[in-house]
Amino acid sequence: MAITVSLVALFGLVLFFLLRSHSLSYGSAFTAAGFGFFLASTGAARPINQLVESLVETVSSL
Questions:
Q1: Per-residue pLDDT tens over the stretch 1-57
Q2: To 10 degrees, what angle do helices 7-20 and 26-39 make?
Q3: In angstroms, rounded to a whole number, what is the distance separating the alpha carbons of residues 11 and 33?
Q4: Which of 38, 40, 41, 60 is the most core-located residue (most Cβ within 10 A)?
C-alpha cells in the first residue's frame, strides 16, 4: 500500500509545529510562505519540481 502526502501539506505541518513550539515567529512564517508563493511563479519552479520528484522517487525505491 502506498501513501502519498502533498509536499504543501507536509511543509504546512512542519511550519505549524515550528510556530507552535515558538521556534519561528509569525513574521518569519509569513515571509517563508510569501517566498514560496512567489518562487512558484518564477522559472525556478520547474527545476525545483523536477528535483523534488527525483528525490521522492529515489527515497521510495530504497
A1: 455 567 677 777 888 888 888 887 888 888 788 777 777 777 877 888 888 889 889
A2: 160
A3: 10
A4: 40
